[in-house]
Amino acid sequence: MNTLLSQLKIGQKATVLEVNLEEIPLKLLEMGCLPESKIELKQIAPLGDPLYFVVDESHIAIRKETANCITVKLEE
To answer: What are the Cα distances from residue 1, in Å, to 4, 8, 31?
Structure first.
């Protein structure tokens, strides 16, 4: 099932399908948030933004507005 990265729940794992290159910071791409990368939501900040993920063993924080530009496929 395809969804936006911002829609994951804590502990859910997914595979990145598509990123909007016009909206994604280059630094995020350099850290490995590319198509076919495995990603897991680890934590959500108390006010709901940012979201903390593990992407292929890298720990990153992504703002919710940026996460809305990344399409993922949920792992079952």
So the answer is: 10, 12, 25
